[in-house]
Amino acid sequence: MTTVSARSPSTARSGTRTIPPARQVGDRAEGQEAAEARATSLADQLAAADKEAKRLARRARNGVCPCCHRSFANVKKHMDNRHPTYQS
Length: 88
Ligand SMILES: [Zn+2]
Fold this sequence. Notes:
With 88 residues, the chain is mainly alpha-helical. The protein has a domain at 37-88. Helix content is 48%, strand content 0%. The chain contains 2 helices and no strands. It has helices spanning 28-61, 75-82. The longest helix has 34 residues, at 28-61. The N and C termini lie far apart (72 Å). Zinc ion is lined by residues 65, 67-68, 70, 78, 82-83. The site of zinc ion (ZN) has 7 residues, from helix 2.
């Protein structure tokens, strides 16, 4: 005969978790429009950042100094000598 209780008092959760309400957007149409505008803006920013990263990578590959925009065979040596305080 087994007398195992289904309830275990030790698993009771303590503390109060605040669960945000699922529905916070009142006007659905306006919220969606704003969200789409924000998504478009973020996509534009992402594209611009991606373009900038590629541009900088290309410049670095060609040995262009990020400070004075001149190209050097040894950019590290140039950075150490001419721009020792430059931080990325
Ligand atoms: Zn330089």
